[in-house]
């Protein structure tokens, strides 16, 4: 049972009711600072009511539905720590699993500061590999096969043996198909039927892929190698066949926590079932609206079916968003409000807990280089205004889009880092720096370089200075700046480490670095992050630029089915919810300068970006008919920017509140005013009898390209459409209005 709220009102520890919530997800490399949880009760301080319910519900199955930015990691780490500190959970009996080494490392750091450092926090693969290595001699005998860390070269060799030539893109895609087949437990012979049934968009003939898959498996067997999927498959096989080993693991781990449960594959779920046995001491955390990895075999079905499987489960919803401003959250909620399908039925309506911030910016450009240049200039302005480069990200749908942004940022003199490129700890400058630190640590007090230097951060700076590194960054960008940023990240990590571990030595730091290297838990580099939307999952920044948002890119062209389209929508939702404060959404009308402006903004922005109609509101639709005059209108008319109900006539014409931001083309508005003045003079009428100012503003905001779009604007009735439509459309499309009589037009 949760203690009474009154027990937590200590003046030194502000409670949730007193504004002391600290659930914001922004954290350093070593979250939380020095350990502050001096008792079980203290672990609960600062949690909001829903987070506290998660933390204190320690028995039976628990399902936490946690929206983006709602502090889910905080809730589950405090749950584990509360169980440990209250004596209800033994640290060694808890296994917390997640999907990335970075997330597992962050979880371990938080548990350590909360006094629960003995708890195992690992990825599915890491936990399975540890068990496989320990039990292999007993279950199989001999040495564990060598782990193949990167399978793409072996897939290329398998393709060559099958006399199938694969280009770089096909090689990557075929490798992905093999991974999908394995996590869905599909053998090579069954791959074509399974891929066909699942509606896979395959890069080559299915029979060819099945042949390459089979040859790849044979090459591994011949060379006594296993890949990451084999780690899970073999562990599952051992636990199924050897009940004594399964019982030994179940005796060790009695309580399980699974983060990002919407991303569990059938194979991972099978492994989790074997770990659990007949028990139900399980806490899962997830958000169906962030399911974006179905192409790898992940499915939200296990999360959505949790209550069916465990009818007695406790379900807690976390909807208080501590990450993003109300403006960002409003846009995120708007995206999901248009979603369809089963995942959409379980969407969470987020409630921002932050102060108001700037409105999202929508930017249209003539071509991709212009878009990249515009984004780079906006980033430079943000940095000049005090936003650190490391707190800014440019996110796009596919990695091929990065090149134009790399060039634009380099031209603007803005440092950047590519996420998903070379691994941090494999970089030559990082290896050299760690080697120097290790050597200094071995020397101990015999290194004259460190005489009279006590503070760990200063020691690290001194050691790295001896390798040629300087505290001041080099001018410009490029490889030299990238190398400097990598070493600077190590310095910052050392300073964070010293703050959380007072008295730590260089030897302690080198041990920490080795652990991070093994887990690929890299520190943060102070440069603008360039990443795909998929790679950005689980991360956050003060400012996010979502670039290239055109139909055909998001949703991607090959997304055909309704579910594929909805996953693309969720992908954009994930991108939006990465932003804490500043959010810019942009698109280009053509690929290259001078190209045909044939692209359109992503359909997911319809009804959300200023000037756009909601889905299903095209010419001839019910929405269009409802927009024509008050007589045909049914129901309230909502502001297309903020969603507020409109009542004033002028606002109804504009389809937005007077004080909501406008994206009106000022030049177009002035041309329309000049044209109206000429028409009024010719006909001897007051100008407002042609069109009112509000109607001209609405036309300039919508910039219609055809009669159907013009007719949807309030104030443009059938008679005025016939009389003035052709000339207005000519002005809107950049042409000179015709010289014929307006009545003929």
Largest sheet: 6 strands, parallel
> Which of globular, elongated, flat, extended, rod-shaped describes the shape?
globular
Question: How large a portion of the residues is in β-strands, by DSSP E?
Answer: 5-15%
Q: Which strand order spans the largest sheet, edge to edge or round the barrel?
A: 3-2-6-7-1-8
Residues in helices, as a percent range: 40-55%
The number of helical segments is: 31
Computed over alpha carbons, the radius of gyration is 29 Å
Low-confidence stretches: 1-36, 618-635, 740-745
Q: Quick check: average pLDDT?
A: 82
* Helix-and-strand structural type: alpha/beta
Give the beta-strand count: 18
State the end-to-end distance: 78 Å
Defining traits:
745 residues, alpha/beta, 6-stranded parallel β-sheet, disordered C terminus
Report on the structure:
The chain is α/β, with parallel strands linked by helices and 745 residues long. 45% of the residues lie in helices and 10% in strands. It is built from 31 helices and 18 strands. Strands 3-2-6-7-1-8 form a 6-stranded parallel sheet, with helices on both faces. A 6-stranded parallel sheet has the order 11-16-15-12-14-13, with helices on one face. Helix 15 packs antiparallel against helix 23 (562-576). The radius of gyration is 29 Å and the shape is globular. Residues 1-36, 618-635 and 740-745 have low confidence and may be disordered.
